[in-house]
Amino acid sequence: METLTIQIPDEKSSMVKQILQEFGVTILTDEVPSKKPSSFAGIISKETAKQLLLDVERSRREWERDI
Question: Origin, by domain of life (predicted)?
């Protein structure tokens, strides 16, 4: 069996997939695996994380104040 990679215009993809499946072709999609929150650990520095938290807290205080 041979593996081919083809790019199909969005408006034609359903029709092309249906035709290929009628010929017994197996369709593999490029699905992006979802990442777990733990896989993002350590991506930003501790200093950046601290600054982001301070900014969020400041924004919350501004949002909650009485005008």
Answer: Bacteria
For 5-63, give the secondary structure using H, E and C. Answer: CCCCCHHHHHHHHHHHHHCCCCCCCCCCCCCCHHHHCCCCCHHHHHHHHHHHHHHHHHH
> Tens digit of pLDDT for each residue in 9-36?
889 989 999 999 999 999 887 776 778 8
**Burial profile 13-37: b = 16 or more Cβ within 10 angstroms, e = fewer:** eeeeeeeeeeeeeeeeeeeeeeeee
Kindly state the tokens that stand for 1.
């069996």
Distance CA 57, CA 8 (A): 47
pTM of this structure: 0.41
Dmax of the chain from CA atoms? 70
